[in-house]
Amino acid sequence: MARRCEPIGGAHRPEKAPAGAFFVACAAAPAAPAAPADPDPDPDPHCAMPLDPLLRTATMTALLLAAAPGARASALPQVQLRLAGQAIEAEVASTPAQRETGLMRRASLPAGHGMLFVFRRPQPVCMWMKDTYIPLGVAFIAGDGRIVRLADMQPLTLQAHCSGAPVRYALEMQQGWFAAHGVAPGSTLQGLAAQAGPRR
Q1: Is the Cα torsion angle 109, 161, 121, 199 positive or negative in sign?
Q2: What pLDDT is attached to residue 13?
Q3: Has residue 57 been placed in a domain?
């Protein structure tokens, strides 16, 4: 999902993503009595058998989707917001880990739903779309709820979309939602009072 950039040494750059890899391991076969060598042995049923490329690709895709955060219900807190007279159901990403994960690997986003990023203090921030499959729009929002900048972001890109000014929040919605409802810089997001408490 979108990632956040914070000022580092006077410049803005994305936070480094943690290294990781996906593995499928074979279970160890149970010990068996020694037997004469078989010139054409059967494949070990406890290990993966060779698959043709198409089947292997489909299998790995299914495993990756099952492991993706979007494949299970979000455990993030939710808040009801209003913008341009429209109700928004937003998941709240307020910790560093939640902000870094964001909407990554989600297969879809319900209509009228989004994600609200809450930052520790007003600061310039940037977002990108690494590992994010859904076209998104982002509104950068000052502490008083006033939108200072809007940007459209394309899936699976590393282009940085920056606030251009210190902000306390960012709201991601499906791409086109802001334009469809006449949202522009200067519009005010309502319902942020509950998010202005403890800063992490």
Answers
A1: positive
A2: 42
A3: no
The pTM of the full predicted model, rounded to 2 decimals, is 0.65
Which three-class secondary structure string do you get for the chain?
CCEEEEEECCEEEECCCCCCCCCCCCCCCCCCCCCCCCCCCCCCCCCCCCCCHHHHHHHHHHHHHHHCHHHCCCCCCEEEEEECCEEEEEEEECCHHHHHHCCCCCCCCCCCEEEEEEEEEEECCEEECCCCCCCEEEEEECCCCEEEEEEEECCCCCCCEECCCCEEEEEEEECCHHHHCCCCCCCECECCHHHCCCCC
Averaged over successive runs of 10 residues, the pLDDT of the chain (200 residues) comes to 45 40 36 48 36 44 44 76 98 96 96 97 97 98 98 97 98 98 98 67
Task: Give the count of domains, the chain.
Answer: 1
CATH code at 87? 2.60.120.1140
Q: Report pLDDT for 193.
A: 86
| Of 140, 133, 135, 131, nearest in space to 171 by CA | 140
